[in-house]
Amino acid sequence: MSHASAVHAKPPGQWAVPIDARPPRSAALQTALFALYFNACILVTHATQYLFVPLAVLPATRPYFHAGIRYTKHAFGRLIVAITQFFAPTKLVLTCEGARAAAVVRTDKKGRFAGLDLPRRGVWMSNHQVYTDWLYLWNIAYFADLADSITIILKASLKWIPFIGWGMQFFGFYFIDRSNSDEASLGKFLRGLGRAQNGKLLLLIFPEGTLVSKLTRPKSAAFAEKEGIEDLKNLLLPRSTGLWTCLRGLRDVEDLELVDFTMGYPGIPPAGYGQSYYTLTSIFMQGVPPPAVHMHVRITPARELPLDDRAKFDAWVLQTWRDKDALLDGFYETGVFPVSEKGSVARAEVPIKLRGIRELGDICCWAAPIWLGWALYRLLR
User: Fold this and answer.
1) Does residue 146 form part of some domain?
2) Beta-sheet pairing, 105-107 with 113-116
3) Which regions of 47-149 does DSSP assign to beta strands (E)?
4) Domain-embedded: residue 117
5) What is the mean pLDDT of residues 50-60?
6) Per DSSP, what are the bridge partners of residue 205?
7) Which domain holds residue 181?
8) Edge-to-edge strand order for the sheet containing 91-97?
9) Residue 10 covered by a domain
């Protein structure tokens, strides 16, 4: 029996049923435990960030401030792995395309999964179906030893969310207001990113700009009609401006590469809406995660992209999204991403779990230590 046939031979679980059609189930205990654990770790991590603030004052100590913030960012990355492992167990199924495909997945002497070898300095882009997309991509960054270097461009409305938004400001994420885009500010941000002191760079961007949904699908169709082009079936038409700006702003990074992810979730039907099947609440609080998250990976050196010709770049992005749409057609038919004819493909299953028990301490920054002696015993009494 083929792998695809085996997938369809298994009876579907709750994940294959739309959320509003699922039978009611009690999830109060899991919800309470998740909220307690996640929020406690977030609070400790954010409090630890403030401990590093004095180091940012003097130029001589500023590198230690940045190193401390990277540690808290890595702590959050480990937290993302932990909540998946403990509250919503699943695995990542990677298919990697191209000449470097076989080298992406690293194994130990016994052939067991040991990590991922992805570009140390890259722009990551992906289609956007579910709000957990960024979370599973952060899992990938963890296994590629890049979790302390991830940077995300986000909507400005997220900047002031208590604790989470404040923490993301410490992480150095860029918040953009589409109604008042400041290209000079973005350019300065990108140049600083290119001079990353730890030699690593990971900028994550979703060119569709938002999720595929009942609200956004008509907008994509209207834009396609206006431009005289064919709309996509499973995805939204991409916006190339953000990706164009980021790649050009980082073009002085000689070894920069574009890492392109196509993500697929079991249970979502062709042309379906991911949020009807998977939400942060349904996955982590109601305990119905996807049985696997499938990712097809393509890696392209940035120097090979047509960054000097906007029309050619726009055409390249559109064709890339049409290729993604075709990949998802195959995924929805067989349950796996099909083997590409464009190059070799390596496939690996990545279990989402922490590398060791020590990382449980890192998640809470080892309580920093007991939050700096209970603030130096309340400032020496």
Assistant:
1) yes
2) antiparallel
3) 91-97, 105-107, 113-116, 121-126
4) yes
5) 91
6) 125
7) 25-375
8) 174-176, 150-155, 201-205, 121-126, 257-264, 293-301, 91-97, 345-351
9) no
